[in-house]
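Lab channel / #folding
Pinned by the channel admin:
"Please post every new chain as: sequence first, then the C-alpha cells as a reply. Keep commentary short and put observations after the output so the thread stays searchable."

First post following the new format, from NK:
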Amino acid sequence: MKKICFLNVLLLFIFYNTPAFAFTDSREEYEKTGHVLWDVDTKEKLVALTFDDGPHPIFTPQILDILAKYDAKATFFIAGNKAIRFPAILKQEAIAGHEIANHTFHHLYHTSTAETLAAELEKTDKVIQQITGVKPSLYRPVGGIYNDLIIHTAIKNKKEVVLWSWNQDPRDWTNPPASQISAYITKGVKPGNIILFHDWYGSEYTQSFQTVHALDNILAFLSENGYKCVTVSEMLYRSTQMIPDSFGVYPAKKTNAARVDLVY
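Reply from TO:
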C-alpha cells in the first residue's frame, strides 16, 4: 500500500510540474505549436532574407545599401551586446523598414536554465525597444539550436521562434567565396524560404566579408526571377499563417492588401 501511495504522489508531482507544452526534439512536433517555423507556406514568390549576429560597423551599412538598391526588406536578428555598441546602425535598419528581431544578448550557444535564456531575451528586448521604439516578437536561437528548454522558454516569453529553410544556409560565417554563397542560395530557392546570412564576421575591424559581395548577385537573381524579399513577419502575414500577436504592427485579420509596409 505504501508503494502505491508513493507512486500516486509521484505521478501527481510529475503532472503538476510538467510544462504546459509537452515537446520532443522533433521538428514536426515543434511546428505543431504554431510558434516555431523553418519555412512559410505560401504560393507567392516571396522569400525572407535574415541576417544574424550584428549590427557590424562595416558590413551592416554595406548590406543596407545593397538591400535598398533592390527595394528588398530583411529581418535582422540582433545580438544585444552589439546593438549597445552600434545603436546608430540598428536605428538605420529600423528607419529603412527592416524588421528587428532578438538573437539573445551575449550570443550564448548553451543556456543551462530557462531563467538564463529569459534574462537574455528580456535584456535584448529592452535594448532594441530603447533604440528603435519597437519590442521584437521574433527570436532565433543561437546556432539554430532548439530543444524543449529553448522552445518552451521562448513561447513563455511571447516569442515566435524563427529558424531557417534547411536548403538555405550557405554557411557564410566560414567566409567561402562569394560565388559559392550565391550559387548555394539561388540553385534551390523556393517561395516561402527563410534564408540565413550573417552581417557579423570576424571582429569589428575586419574589412572583407564575402556575404556582402554575394548579396548583389543573389538579389539580382531573385528580382529577375520574380521573387520579392520581405520581412519574416510580412511573409507570415501574407500567407495563411497567423501573424504574431505581439508584433503590434499588422491588423488582427488578414486582408487582401497587396503590400503591407512595416513602420518603425
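NK: The longest helix spans residues 114-132.
TO: also worth noting, The first strand starts at residue 36 and ends at 37.
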